[in-house]
Each structure stands twice: as C-alpha cells, then as structure tokens.
Amino acid sequence: MFDLSLVEARDALRAKKISSRELTGAYVGAIEQLNPQINAYITTTPEAAMAQADAADAALAKGEAGPLTGIPLAIKDLFCTKGVRTTAGSKILQPFIPPYESTVSSNLLRDGAVFLGKANMDEFAMGSSNMTSAYGGVTNPWTRRGDNRPLVPGGSSGGSAAAVSARMALGATATDTGGSIRQPAAFCGIVGIKPTYGRCSRWGVVAFASSLDQAGPVARNVEDCAVLLGSMAGFDAKDSTSADMPVPDFAAACKRGVKGMRIGVPREYRMDGMAPEIEALWQQGLGWLRDAGATIVDVSLPHTKYGLATYYIVAPAEASSNLARYDGVRFGAREPGRDLTELYENTRAEGFGPEVQRRILIGTYVLSAGYYDAYYLRAQKVRALILRDFTEAFEKVDALLTPATPTAAFGQGEKMDDPITMYLNDVFTVPVNMAGLPGMSVPAGLDAQGLPLGLQIIGRPFDEESVFAVGAAIERAAGFSTLPTIRAGI
Amino acid sequence: MSLDPATVRRIARLSRLSIDDNQVERMQSDLNGILGWIEQLNEVNVEGVEPLTGAAMMAMRMRDDVVTDGNLQEAVLSNAPDREGPFYAVPKVVE
After folding, report:
1. For residue A422, what is the nearest residue in chain B, using CA coordinates?
2. In this predicted complex, what is the ipTM?
3. How far B88 CA sits from the closest chain A CA (Å)?
C-alpha cells in the first residue's frame, strides 16, 4: 500500500483495486506509529479523515471521482482549516480555531482530498530547520550511514516534507517565502515546487512576507506534484495578487521532454566551500539534460550574492507589519497586563519565539523613521536588479538548473548559535522568491554519507510547465529510488 | 550603523514586545550581527533603479466598492480571548 505514489493510488482507487478507507486507514496507522518519533504533525484528525474517506468511496462507487478523490494529504499548519486548530507553529496561535477554510485547502477538498492533519513547521514559517516550532522540532526520516543522530528535515515546511518522505501522507501542502518548500524537499529526498507568485491564492494562509509568500505542494515525485498543484492553483478574487490566468495541465507537461530546450547555468551559483558532491551532481544533472536533447548555456546572475541580505530586509519588514495583528485582543493567546499597552507587550513577548521576535525587531528598525531609505528602499532597488538579472537570462534560456541547497541535511541543534549561519541555507532559493519565479527541487543523488541532495529548476513567470518538463527529465535520468531509514510499511 | 541598548529598547517598544534587561544585550548582539551583514548592500550601485515593491507581474486589480460578505458576528468573535456580549473586552483604557 505504501509503495503506491499519489498518481498510482488515484488510479488504483478509480479501478476499485483499493478503497480510500483502506488507503486512509493505512496512513492514519502510519501516523500513530511514527509521529511520536518524527513529530511531523502538530494536530491529527483521524476521525474526520476516515469520514472523508468514506465519502470518497461513496463518490467513487457512483463514478463521481475528482482529481484527488480519496487521497490522504497533510496540510501545513499555516493554512486555515475550518474548525481545525491552526497554529502556524506558534504559541500565540495555540488556541486559534479558524471559522473559515483557506482557498488552497478548499480547492483540495473540492477535488476530493482527505486531510490527515496539520503539519509541523517553523514558527510563522521563519526558519530553515523546523527547530523554531513551538511544538518541537521534526526529525528527518533520513539518517547518515552508520550514524543514528537525528537530522533536521529543513524548513519551514519541515513537517510537510518529513510526512511525505516517511510515508505518513501521500502529499502535502507547503509554502515558500525564501526556500521553505524547496530546501526541506531537498533535505528529505522528495519533490517540491514553489509556483510563480500569484499562481496559488494566499487567502486564508497565515501571512509572513506578503510579497514573497507562495503556496505549493511537496510529494514523492514530479507527476504527483503536478496533480496537486493543478488542484491548489487558480484565480481567487479574495487575493488581490492572485493571477487571473488559466491553470495549465501540469501533468501533461511532465511528459514533454527537454529536446530543443535551452538550459542556463548561472555561474554565480558556484559557491566557495560548497560540498564537492553538490558540484558533481550539478554537472551530472546538466549531462542528463544534454543527453535528453537540451542545449546547455552559461548565463550570469550578477546580483545573486546580494539576494540573502536583500531578503533579510524585505521579509522582516513585511513580517513586522503582518504580525502586528497578534495583539491578544481579537484571537490567539493573551497574557494579562496592567493596561492595554502592557497586555500587548506581554502577549507578544510570551507568544512569539526568539527568531520571530528578532525578525519583528529588525523589520521595525528598517522601516523606522530615518532608516527607511538606507535599508528598505535600497533593498527594494537591489530586488529590482535581481529580477532584471533573471529577465535578461530568460532572453537566452528556457529554464535554469542550479543546486537546491549548499549542503545536505544537518543535525538537530547545529547552526543554532548564530542566525546568519542558518540564513545561508537559503542562498540558492531566495533569489527566486525575490523575482517571483517558479522553482522546483528534485532529488537527484546522495552525498558521501548517504543523504539526499536536490537540484533546483527555475522557470520564467507562469511557465511552470517548462519546470515540470525539466524536473521530470532529471527524475527519469536520476532514477532516484533510495528510501529513508524511518518510514511506514517496513 | 550599530544599535545601542537604548535603541534596542525603543524598537522593542515600537514593536510592542516587552524585553527585560538581560535580553537587551543578547538582542543587541544578534541585531547588530544581522545589520552588519546587511551592510553589504551598500556596495551595490542602485543609481536610477526604480524600487520593486512586489513580485506580482501585473497591475493590482480594482473591484467594485460593495459589501461582499458579512453578518458573521459570532464567527468573528469566536476566537476572542475575552468578550462581553458582542464586544471584545480589554483592560480599562479610560478612567
């Protein structure tokens, strides 16, 4: 049962070879067995899942199957789910039960999906290790060869990625502000795509940095991601930045091949101190695409090295504004105070963890009178230059291939001493968010210690189809079939 | 630019975050580390570059200024930490 991919499970359900009750029941059992160890879920909803499975079986019996009817998924705890607690990984939202459903999760329910529960994540999606969650870290299902010490799954969508990797869900929703889909997908040996900004509605997704946040799926393979994104995406009048464009057939694009495509190699992504296996894997990936009929072209993205510093002005600035709403008055946790100001200050100091507080303070500072031009305005100008680099590169090529991360997964508790060391994880992913482009991470090989490594494919705005075509070509050539140490079904 | 303890306290106040004295030193060092690292943007020539505010590759849509939703008082108040009837309750602000 656990060996079926999402697409295979969908086909088996339609052919009546399995029922959603059997499939969902198996995943509910896997969560019971593995969640105490992995901590991929903050909240589980097994009874609701089984009821949804029965409804799916009834629909299948009547021949009324939608694209995801009966498929059990994990929902990142950043998506509001009606009547089901939504914490954003934060203590401040511990009591929050949304009275409404996010557009993305509504779209999945419309298409028949079954929800297993809410996936763990870094607090307010701020982190690259899942260690900032108020509900405990997540353990990566992978371990180094001959070394059982727990590793991080990456972040912020660490629970989503670990759940899919350990086979505690057939797929999951995730979000990506600076790499939060692609980095955990790479660390957990699965596929994740951040679509173009505007492709998925942000309505009902707890906001971090509104000009960067974008939802997308993580799943076991490229085609599974294509099916999930096809359901999640689409125009929504309730999000003023939602793109009013038709949703293409992403699954069909996976079968397109790369013959005649021009693939760019940005020379600035060759970093000092990058693991030699990552450089070798990158070259291998380019070789696979060349063998499949693509032409490889050197390109330059000269402002790449400024992406992270720009991000750490823009994202905290937007976060400090978005997180002003957590005041202990209208929803969420409250800490008493002698007067209203003290109530606000106590509520926020008690409810937010250290990384979130750091980012609120940085954001408040860079937006404060006298510093706005020196920091925020300058960062927005550098952001324009980062976008211009990509625009010029895409005059010469159809897609870019880069490593997804500078290293494989690291140990729990590592890189915690200094915030900037943690931030460097996102060096290859952040520029894509700054420019609003689609980016995918595909597992392509293992490092010397047996941990998965991902390659990143970057596409033109609203050309996820090319990203899927290249991702599927890499997947076919890589034949990545190694499974993590900890998983259901063994 | 380097933050002194008074500035850290002022930003915390603007952010409505209470911080005690032994946190000020840690925050000051973290924030100065981050701000020092961000200084690298000063080497970029941004002369004549228009700032980019967002990644949406389109103009913001306008909609008719009409009510699209409403009459959801109970739903809106359902997560209030404290309420009195149809109102949010907070400590007394007017003597």
Report:
1. B34
2. 0.95
3. 7
